[in-house]
């Protein structure tokens, strides 16, 4: 017995120890799993995240987020701030920390006491027709005090009488969305929501009419309570005249009764009549010839508190490198598509990553920062104030910014806008995820069927769009020079010519709309969540940053060729040579290619963590080298010499193209031609500086 | 025999092996000694460098550098470019690589055919007196074609007649250096050079009269041949009227004969007469009353090639971190003091470090970059073009810039100008080096006797001056936001009140002048070389960057107190509160202190190289967070919100102080008062951004 007991004891101890080890490894939460400084992306973790992203959870997120209207700074918007904070501080699925950052920003609202109105009045002042002041309550969600009536934010108040005033110039503007542009021509109630995804006749697109972005009173400064604010008389960028949006139902009444000559063919639409230019109403129409249209706009400006919510997962190895992923939170009304379809995805991804974090099974190499921006609809205000407040820190440390605003416009294909260095990481992600549609295609293989281009390097690849200023990525790319991207699922253009999903910015953009028409089953939402998740993990966990700077060579070469073709002859006439630009592009290409070779060598060996960090810094900071805050003094925030707004249609260097277009036929020694030369030098210096950043770091 | 032989063989093999090891270690050049990623500053290497810096070698360098005049872009200047390249590529004592970078810049020269002249002429046009057109050839070095005649660079050509023109305003300017300001009142030939260090009566101070710095035709762009150049009519910053410098010998003749009322007491000097204001000559003086002074200036502008020479020692561990050490190469004439005393030191330090490098006994942790700038005398042109060309790369990677222009003004004490983070490394170096004077004081203990202040943190310490735009550090600190310093040995102010060393910018600034009067024995040169060498090694080799960011707290607190005392009441009258600034300073102090504690903790443990790198990035990039390229749109290159030029005498936040001074008595709602509020917000945001950079890197 004794020896058996002894053996039993021995075996028991070993078994207990083993059990303890197993328990310790798998069951006890470890908030800091041991991660080596050369640990690369863990494909099992990636697989886990891909598998766990849950369409039904995204659907539930969306239902909650879009349950009530949540206009920027409204009480429901504030409630959603709390919801985000609660999710991101959840003990089981939250992040390391989360915080709301409040700004005091200038917003614009219609008056509750005096509704904006558009009326046709007779010569005696009698009201002959009134446009709707709110949308028709078709599903029970379009009524109530929280549905902001249609208005043009930042349009000034005023009461222009358009017909009379036309003699002296435009005194007011009415805006509507034509069924030809938004509804594939359909306009009848039985053809539109809630019977289809098309915009009902009473639907009105709200929007901001402010020309710039960011808080209008605090350009280049965060809108903290103590910050300097412009006097209203010094604010530029607001529309000069009263403006009001109306539905196509009302537009039809006004437009189909107009007198005057026929509008150009391109201006005709699907209202079912000939569009005429006025002035005045047609004598045989519904209104007496001497009727007028009275527009009353009673919008007012107001300083309001609006918050960003930031949440962070601390990086285990390089906590000072940030992978940023954000979307705005505020909507015009319920905002189920815009922006809640994006926030629903954001919350599901943060839940999955937060759960892995809290369980102790994973911590990223770099920090991941989640952001819920405020007051985007008024002009990217929350994100812009954030970049103004943390300008230096973000420029020093941010690897890339991923924006998912509207995550699903439609469920045909992935659509990506981004700067060239993000192409490779998007491709890597998209190749590994199944497309939600029929068949067994990857997202990548499906994508390439809808959007593609022929790359001199890779052959046929999906084509990325470039980043304008349509969502919160704008301050990141244009003001901070951070490699950015915006992803969504979108249309099959062979099936619709709608400018955007039809209920955009109306009271009909609701949960049921998404659930029934946009993405039943939420598989496109899930596909976007997987793509975003894969991109975020690749950026946060890869040992070598998956930013392929060589892909800028492709863009630069095509910009150069476009400049040579479109501007070369004109420039030559003015003795301006593109040779320095050719040389600069060549230097960039050579430096990028050499860096790629160096990276391959490092990857084959056993690189030490500092070597990797130095190389990654080159990759991360490349985009920054294209910034020049003095390049476009008249363009607020736009400092990126490759992606500033272009006036022409040719995809080329914007400063050069714009300056050429302005110089035009002015005389050879003009200031305008000097500006062309200055812009050419600016882009040459930027490219040479970019090449210098990519060359071996101890080169002179 | 056999066993003996065997033993002998065994012993012999061991001895050979040991010998081999010893040879391998000490004799075979290893260009890359094995350096661990956590290697700290090697005090033995520091000791070696301190011991090897050789005063007589510095003297020989100076003799060679100042042998001939080397005006910017002259053939001797070009020859010195070759000399530097040769030294820095020497197989036994050179650097890893060296290269000349040529720019095409706009310089200004007097005409060889038509010398500038200043004459007194009678009413009939007869010349009554002519000022000297060149300095007296006292030592055989002041003659010859390479000695540029005295002139005011960038002053426009013209022939004003000063007396007549005075009725309508100033038409021309004559500049001279009064013996009261430069010579402690002495002016006789036997009291001046070559009999003493004082300026001889014929000596004339040359200089640039361009208001900004950098190449005048290419602001913000490197002056490469293809770069856009301003049309001359669009260049601002040149003096509007003809200007010519003269010696005090000639000034005496003009000034002591002037008529009119007595000049203010502060304008009187040591020429031995009462200074009067004119107009016209005194009836009892040397010239008829109706005589006039004719000034003829024939300066011309010319595009010339000017080179920087750059040399680099590649860092072993962090080659992408640069410690920059530079001085200009060009002089007005022989330039023994200015700038060759600095270059002589630079060459000796690069020789010592190069020798250690080539022997394989040392390689720095970070890269060290040596620079010899061109065309500094015309307005810091070479260094400015360099910062324009490599803006991004330098901002990303430069740890600090050390400037040693004139290394020895006089041999009493060290003098340092710099930003607060460099104070600690200078102090560390200065405490360990013996002062060259009598007694056994350290440079630090000697220094504190001449310049000191009471620090709330440290008690009595040597005081650092702040950086203006007097030498090539200007573009580094003001345009790039790189922590910078300028060091030299200088005067005992109880012994001289000379504005600067007396032969400054004259043909009398020669090797013999230095050898006999400024620093016989070159021990002050050696002291500066040791200080510079110690600072460079500490910056390049310390594991933790020796930049004490907490020392900015001291400066900010004193700026804040000055603002409260000097501007507080005025601001309060305009309802402008300094509270946000107080809060921002407090946040900075707290973040800097916490970072200091974190660093101490790391230092006590065994930090991994990435942790050190992340902390060092915070230290390196702090200075960058004070840059705001939009803060002072009218000040070219000045973007550092703490060190931009101040118009007032109070050491405080320059933007705020200048704006207050401009707003002055304007009405409360004026644009000028709005600018005060804007400037206040700019500095608050900069300080908050700085604090954000210092806080733990994964904090929100």
Automatic annotation (TrEMBL), chains A, B:
Coiled coil: none annotated. Keywords: Aminopeptidase, Calcium, Disulfide bond, Glycoprotein, Hydrolase, Metal-binding, Metalloprotease, Protease, Signal-anchor, Transmembrane, Zinc. It is a single-pass type II membrane protein. It holds the Pfam family TFR_dimer. One of its GO terms (cellular component) is apical plasma membrane. One of its GO terms (biological process) is proteolysis. Gene3D superfamilies: 3.50.30.30, Transferrin receptor-like, dimerisation domain (1.20.930.40), Zn peptidases (3.40.630.10). SUPFAM superfamilies: PA domain, Transferrin receptor-like dimerisation domain, Zn-dependent exopeptidases. Its main location: membrane. Belongs to the peptidase M28 family. M28B subfamily. Aminopeptidase with broad substrate specificity. Has lower activity with substrates that have Asp or Glu in the P2' position, or Pro in the P3' position. Lacks activity with substrates that have both Pro in the P3' position and Asp or Glu in the P2' position. Lacks carboxypeptidase activity. Lacks dipeptidyl-peptidase IV type activity. This is Aminopeptidase NAALADL1. The lineage of its organism: Eukaryota, Metazoa, Chordata, Craniata, Vertebrata.
